[in-house]
Amino acid sequence: MNTKTRSAPEGFSDAAESYDAAVQHNIAGSERLVMSLPEGDYPRVLDVGCGTGFASAAMLRRFDVSTLVGVDPAEGMLEVFRAKLDRFPDVEIELRAEDVMEMSVADGAFDAVISAMALHWFPDKPGAVARMSRALRPGGVMGILCVGRGGEDAWRELLERIEAPPAWTGWFAENQRDVEEIDADLRAAGLEPIDIWMERRRRTTPADAFMARTRAVAGHLLGNPPDGFSELDQRIEAALHAASGPDGFVYDYCKLFAVARKPEK
Ligand SMILES: C[S@@+](CC[C@H](N)C(=O)[O-])C[C@H]1O[C@@H](n2cnc3c(N)ncnc32)[C@H](O)[C@@H]1O
Q1: What pLDDT sits at residue 2?
Q2: pLDDT of 124-148, one tens digit each?
Q3: pTM of the model
Q4: Which residue's CA is the closest to the ligand 1 atom numbered 22?
Q5: Which residue has a Cα nearest atom 24 of ligand 1?
Q6: How far is the CA of 135 from the centre of ligand 1 (A)?
Q7: Is 30's C-beta closer than 6 angstroms to any atom of ligand 1?
Q8: Top-level CATH class of 8-149+175-204+252-261?
Q9: What is the distance in A from the centroid of ligand 1 to the CA of 116?
C-alpha cells in the first residue's frame, strides 16, 4: 500500500477535476445554505474553503455581489474555479491559495463570510470560526455548512469492519460537529447565532458513485498513486459492493447548517 501521507488540501487538489461530478449533494447543500441567509446587502463576500466555487456561485446568483474573495489552499480546486470565472463578468473575483488560519484578508472587510463543506477539514475549528469572524464587518453575516455529528454510521462501521487505519475510523468523532458545538464556536467568536439546524438524510447510492465521491472528498486518506488505486482503496471498494443492496449502499448523512450575525457596534 502507498503509505505516503497527503494533507486534505493536497488530496482535494489531486481529485479536483472529478470533484464537481462526484459531489452533487454538496452543490445542493451550498444552495440551501445561501438561500437561508437573511435578506440584505452583501456586496463584499469571502468564501473560505471555496473549492471549485459552488457556494460562491450561489451567493452571486442570490445577492448583488461586487467583490468576492475565495480562499482555499488547494491550487487544483482553485484552477477549476478559475475556469468558471467568465460566467461572472460583473464581479471582481480574487482566488487566493491560502489556509483559513493564514488568510491575508483584512479585519472587518466583508459583509458576508461563507464556508461550505470545509469546516470539518479545518484542524482548529473554533480558531477557524474566530478567524472568519474577524473578517466580517459589524452587522455582517456568516453562513457555515459542514458535516454533522450523528450521520455516516454505516460508512464508519464498514471502514471499521475492514480495519481501515485510524485516520479513517477516527475521523468522524474528531471532525463532525453538532448543534451545540457550532453554537459555542460562533458565540466564542463574538457572533450571534440566528439559525442553526441539522439535516439528516437517508441516501441510497450506487457503490461506484459512492466510491467516486470518496475519492473526490477524501483522496488524501486513500493513498492512491497517480496512476492507480492503493490496496486500501481496493479493499474499501470491494466492501462497498458487498454491503450494497440492489439499489446501492444505504447510509444516513447529517449536514449541519449555521447562520450568524456579527453584532453592530
Ligand atoms: C469538500 S470541499 C468544499 C468546496 C466548496 N466549498 C463546495 O461547497 O463545493 C472542501 C474544501 O476545503 C478546503 N480546505 C481544506 N482544508 C482547508 C484549510 N485549512 N483552509 C482552507 N480551506 C481548506 C479543501 O481544499 C477543499 O477545497
Answers
A1: 41
A2: 999 999 999 999 999 999 999 999 9
A3: 0.90
A4: 49
A5: 9
A6: 18
A7: yes
A8: alpha beta
A9: 8
Closest CA to 51 of 14, 85, 91, 79: 79
Cβ(9) – ligand 1 distance below 6 Å: yes
Q: Is the CB of 110 under 6 A from ligand 1?
A: no
Measure the CA–CA gap between 122 and 252, rounded to whole angstroms: 23
What are the boundaries of each domain within the chain? 8-149+175-204+252-261
Nearest atom of ligand 1 to the alpha carbon of 74: 25
CA of 52 to the centre of ligand 1 (A): 9
- Contact between residue 182 and residue 144 where contact means Cβ atoms under 8 Å apart: yes
Report the 3 state secondary structure along the chain. Answer: CCCCCCCHHHHHHHCHHHHHHHCHHHHHHHHHHHHCCCCCCCCEEEEECCCCCHHHHHHHHHCCCCEEEEECCCHHHHHHHHCCHHHCCCCEEEEECCCHHHCCCCCCCEEEEEEECCHHHCCCHHHHHHHHHHCEEEEEEEEEEEEECCCCHHHHHHHHHCCCCHHHHCHHHHHCECHHHHHHHHHHCCCEEEEEEEEEEEEEECHHHHHHHHHHHCHHHHCCCCCCCCHHHHHHHHHHHHHCECCEEEEEEEEEEEEEECCCC
For residue 66, how far is its CA from the centre of ligand 1 (angstroms)?
A: 23
59 lines ligand 1 (CB under 6 A): no
Check if 19 has its Cβ closer than 6 Å to any atom of ligand 1. no
- Angle, in degrees to the nearest 10, between helices 54-62 and 24-35: 30
- Quick: pLDDT tens for 159-187: 999 999 998 899 999 999 999 999 999 99
